[in-house]
Design a protein that fits this description.
124 residues, alpha+beta, 23% helix, globular
Length: 124
C-alpha cells in the first residue's frame, strides 16, 4: 500500500515537471516581442504571432515593407512580406560593437536592440 502511494506521488510529480517544461518551452524565448523606438524616432513592432512592422525593410520598387518575421534555430532574424518583395535576414551577434559595424547583423540584450547599425530601445 505504501509502495503504491510513493509510485503515485512520483508519477504525479513527473507529470507536473513535464507539464511545466512544456508550458515554459525548451527553446529560446523571443525577446523581440514588443515595440522598439530608435534614436531617430523610428518605431519597430514585433508581435508574438510572428507579425511585425519594420519600416527599415521597405522595398521602394514594390512599395512594400516586411509584415512578418521568424527566428531560425541559429538566431538569424528573417523578415518577409505577404507580397514577397520585402525580405531580408540578419545574423545574431554577441556584442553591440559587432552589430554597429555590420548592417547585416543584429544584437539584442534586455531593452536594447541594434539592427542595421541603428540602436533601438524597448518602449513596452
Amino acid at each position: 500500500m505504501i509502495k503504491k502511494k510513493y509510485i503515485s506521488i512520483t508519477v504525479v510529480f513527473c507529470m507536473i515537471v513535464f507539464l511545466f517544461i512544456g508550458l515554459t518551452g525548451c527553446g529560446k524565448s523571443n525577446n523581440l516581442v514588443g515595440s522598439w523606438v530608435s534614436e531617430g524616432d523610428d518605431l519597430v513592432k514585433f508581435e508574438n504571432n510572428g507579425s511585425c512592422s519594420a519600416p527599415f525593410t521597405y522595398n521602394a520598387a514594390w512599395i512594400e515593407s516586411a509584415d512578418s518575421y521568424t527566428i531560425k534555430d541559429d538566431g538569424t532574424l528573417v523578415f518577409s512580406s505577404t507580397g514577397g518583395h520585402a525580405n531580408s535576414s540578419y545574423k545574431l551577434v554577441d556584442s553591440e560593437e559587432e552589430a554597429l559595424k555590420d548592417r547585416h547583423t543584429y544584437y539584442i540584450s534586455g531593452d536594447t536592440l541594434i539592427i542595421r547599425r541603428e540602436k533601438y530601445e524597448k518602449v513596452d
